[in-house]
Amino acid sequence: MKARKLKLSRRQFGYLVLYVVLIAIAVVFIHEAAHILAAAIRGVTFGELKLGFLGINPSVTLPQWVDENTRTVIFYAGGLTTGAVFLLGYLLYWVRKYRREPTLLYWAMGLTTIMLAAEQFAAGYLEGHYHGAYIMSAITLFSPTDVLTYGWMIAAVFFHFSLCPRKMMKANGSQLNNLSDN
What we know:
- By secondary structure, this protein is mostly helical.
- About 65% of the residues lie in helices and about 10% in strands.
- It has helices at about 10-40, 70-100, 105-130, 130-140, 145-165; strands at about 50-55, 55-60, 170, 175.
- Helix 2 (about 70-100) packs antiparallel against helix 3 (about 105-130) and helix 3 (about 105-130) packs antiparallel against helix 5.
- The longest helix is centred in the middle third of the chain and has 33 residues, at about 70-100.
């Protein structure tokens, strides 16, 4: 018996597109909120923060009086917090959901989630450790720091393939069967 080709229906594709848009908005919101929360914990009042855009990227600008160690903690907070939230969501929701009902839609939604988690971990590391390089990558389309980010995202794809193997998938509501005809 030949395995059927896996593909999403129009409705499923619509759900995936909506999920990608919503999760992208959530990434930005959680990332910037983590910076603001870390700044508040470190003694910066909300009124002292400048919210704006760096190129097309939302940003939080700290007041001049904040020392370098405090800045570093605040810079790390955005990406690392967001990455942790999305990694937990991936492990606790999408991996379980896919293992209970292995469909292409759940597989793709899980892949999207883990790739964004990896991107945010890379962004958090770069933002905290190499802030100047992070800023340059935020205002250019391709930068040397993007190599690190893409590397983390590729690693996330392999991680996803190991936790959610495609051979478990159902195609069009019926279980794929890789048995050969006898």
